[in-house]
C-alpha cells in the first residue's frame, strides 16, 4: 500500500489559477472502493484515495502534470517509468505493480493483467472483500490467451468496464500475429522488388513496437527513429529492441515516425534524406 503522506488536494492549473474541474464520470469510479481509473483530468475526485492508470496514452493520462499531488498513482512498472521520465511526476506518488501479481490496496485485492495493447498496458481486476469482482479493461485487444487467463476463469465478473471503441459487427480483426506476419511479408516483397524502398511505420509515442521489431528481425536491418523515441524505447528494458535502434537515418530502410509526419510532402523529404 502507498505509505502515509500528507495529501494536498489542489484545485488549480499549472499556472496556479483556480479552476472548476469537470465532474468525474461514473464509469471511471470503481464501486465500493476509493479507486478511480484513468481519471486525472477531473481535479481532486471526492472520496478517491488511489488513482489507477491503465496505460501511457495521452487520452488516459491526460491531466497528469509534474505538480500532481492528489494521491498515489498505481500502474505497471513500464508505465511508471514513462510517467516519471516524460511527465516528471514525483516518484513518491508513483506506485508500480507487476503483472499477474495480487496486491491488497485499501482492503481490495488488485491484479494487473496483460492488455495486449501498447507496452505497459493492463487490464485491472478488482476483488472486494464481499466477493464482488470488477474488471476495467482500459484499451485492450482481446485474444484467446487473455480469455483463458486463470483469474478470468474463476467466478463471474460482477461488473465489466469495457473498451467499446471497435464494438461493432462491421469490424473484424485477425489475430495480431497474423497482422504482423502480413506486414513483414509485404515489406519483404517490396524491398525485393525495389531495394531502395523506404519502409515507414507511423506510431504514437508508444505503440507498434511489435510491428517494427518484427520487420527489423525479418529484414535484419536496424530501426531508425528520432532521439525522443529512442529514449522512450530504451526505457522499456527490451534488449532485442534496444540493440536494433539506430540514430542514423541513412543506416536503415526502416524508419519509425510520428503519425503526424505521414504526409506526402514530409515523406518525400524523409526519403530524400535517407
Automatic annotation (TrEMBL):
Coiled coil: none
Any one Gene Ontology BP term: double-strand break repair via nonhomologous end joining
Molecular function GO terms recorded: 5'-3' DNA exonuclease activity; damaged DNA binding
Gene3D superfamilies (UniProt xref): 3.40.50.12650, Ribonuclease Z/Hydroxyacylglutathione hydrolase-like
Protein name, entry field: DNA repair metallo-beta-lactamase domain-containing protein
Amino acid at each position: 500500500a502507498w505509505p502515509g503522506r500528507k495529501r494536498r488536494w489542489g484545485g488549480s492549473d499549472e499556472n496556479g489559477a483556480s479552476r472548476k474541474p469537470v465532474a468525474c464520470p461514473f464509469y471511471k469510479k470503481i464501486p465500493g472502493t476509493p479507486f478511480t481509473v484513468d481519471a486525472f483530468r477531473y481535479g481532486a475526485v471526492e472520496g478517491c484515495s488511489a488513482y489507477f492508470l491503465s496505460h501511457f496514452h495521452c487520452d488516459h493520462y491526460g491531466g497528469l502534470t509534474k505538480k500532481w499531488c492528489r494521491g498515489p498513482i498505481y500502474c505497471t512498472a513500464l508505465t511508471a517509468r514513462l510517467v516519471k521520465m516524460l511527465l516528471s511526476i514525483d516518484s513518491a506518488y508513483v506506485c508500480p505493480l507487476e503483472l499477474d501479481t495480487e496486491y491488497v490496496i485499501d482492503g481490495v485485492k488488485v491484479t494487473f493483467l496483460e492488455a495486449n495493447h501498447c507496452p505497459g498496458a493492463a487490464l485491472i481486476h478488482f476483488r472486494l472483500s464481499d466477493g464482488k469482482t470488477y474488471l476495467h479493461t482500459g484499451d485492450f485487444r482481446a485474444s484467446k490467451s487473455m480469455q483463458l487467463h486463470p483469474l478470468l476463469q474463476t467466478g463471474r465478473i460482477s461488473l465489466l468496464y469495457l473498451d467499446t471503441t471497435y464494438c461493432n459487427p462491421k469490424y473484424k480483426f485477425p489475430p495480431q500475429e497474423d497482422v504482423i506476419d502480413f506486414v513483414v511479408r509485404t515489406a519483404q516483397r517490396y524491398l525485393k522488388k525495389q531495394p531502395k524502398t523506404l519502409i515507414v511505420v507511423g506510431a504514437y509515442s508508444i505503440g507498434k513496437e511489435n510491428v517494427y521489431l518484427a520487420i527489423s528481425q525479418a529484414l535484419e536491418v536496424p530501426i531508425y527513429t528520432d532521439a525522443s523515441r529512442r529514449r522512450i524505447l530504451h526505457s522499456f528494458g527490451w534488449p532485442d529492441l534496444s540493440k536494433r535502434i539506430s540514430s542514423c537515418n541513412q543506416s536503415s530502410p526502416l524508419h519509425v515516425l510520428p503519425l503526424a509526419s505521414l504526409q506526402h510532402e514530409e515523406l518525400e523529404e524523409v526519403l530524400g534524406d535517407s
